Amino acid sequence: MNSTDLSVLKTAVAWLQAGQRVAIATVVQTWGSSPRPIGSWLVIREDGQVAGSVSGGCVEDDLIRRVQSEILPLSKPELVVYGVSQAEAARFGLPCGGTLRLLVEPRPELAILEKLLDAISQHHVLQRVVVVASGQSTLQTLNPSKAPEQTFIFDEQRMVTSYGPRWRMFIIGAGQLSLYVADFALAADFEVIVIDPREEYIEGLQRAEIRFVQGMPDDVLLELGLDPHTAVVALTHDPKLDDMALLEALKSNAFYVGALGSMTNTRKRKERLLQFDLNQEQIDRLHGPVGLAIGALTPPEMAVSIMAEVIAVKYQVTITQNKT
Fold it and tell me: Which of 38, 47, 166, 318 has the smallest count of CB within 10 Å of its CB?
């Protein structure tokens, strides 16, 4: 789940807990060009306040009006369509004659949303199933051992949406390069956790958007847990710190594990790791030298190359290159 969708969920829960009436609108189908993908959602409060987006601003004003006057009094979900005709698409600013179909829930169930938010915070993977005829919803837990596809199903009878935790990046080491990598990871919508036991690096990481954990990296990784939504990047240049973290990361189902170092140092590191309880298949998961070979020399350039490789692996894009 990206940070925007998570913010919508948190807002919906907070408003419902405060006793406000709200409706949740979800994009269930699109035709032509659409500003927002299927599964995008927003929450509308009874006084017209909103969080999230279903069209990038094209239809929100009209949707708020319809929710307040027509949909909030209902007891069951309502299907709302924008852009049926070329003229209506132009009126609402939908590009290229696009059409947008929304499922609006006037009575979302607080208990279900609270359970969903709690499960996501614990890095669980779930599906929310909404029965269109009644508006009732249920949660189904999915296999946490592998990252699911972003499944979305709408078949007129039900809406099924998959929710997973935010993508996370654990950065081992709090040096200058780590801060640049953290900045790019934040921009790519990752939750960032920097781990370093060295006290002299604490002051440079006093930033609200980055979580800093002082401790041995392997212990912290075990404590916080690794899952298929997690990347681990080791950047300390200190085998005592990097290697111990890599031992845990390579045994886990983290989607990306990388380590800074030259080709020679990477070869030596892999030889060291073979002496522990790792097999060759696990060691082959290590991305090293970390990052794409784009000729990067400065810390910002190296951070770009690292994030480019992480994103490619995240989306399962194969990039073949010689890192020598």
Answer: 318
Check if the beta carbon of residue 32 is closer than 8 Å to that of residue 96.
Answer: yes
Sign of the alpha-carbon dihedral angle for 67, 73, 77, 83 = negative
Architecture of domain 168-314 in CATH?
3-Layer(aba) Sandwich (3.40)
* β-sheet bridge partners, residue 172: 195, 234
What sign for the dihedral angle of Cα 46, 105, 72, 109?
Answer: negative
pLDDT 10s per residue in the chain (324 long)?
Answer: 778 889 999 999 999 999 999 999 999 998 765 667 889 899 999 999 999 988 777 788 999 999 999 999 999 999 999 875 556 655 655 554 568 899 999 999 999 999 999 999 888 889 999 999 999 999 998 875 554 455 789 999 999 998 888 899 999 999 999 999 999 999 999 999 999 998 877 766 667 889 999 999 999 999 999 999 999 999 998 888 999 999 999 999 999 999 999 999 999 999 999 998 899 999 999 999 999 999 999 999 999 999 999 999 999 998 876 665
- Domains of the chain by residue range: 3-163, 168-314
d(CA 274, CA 265): 14
Tokens encoding 230:
């997690």
- CB 296: neighbour CB atoms within 10 A? 16
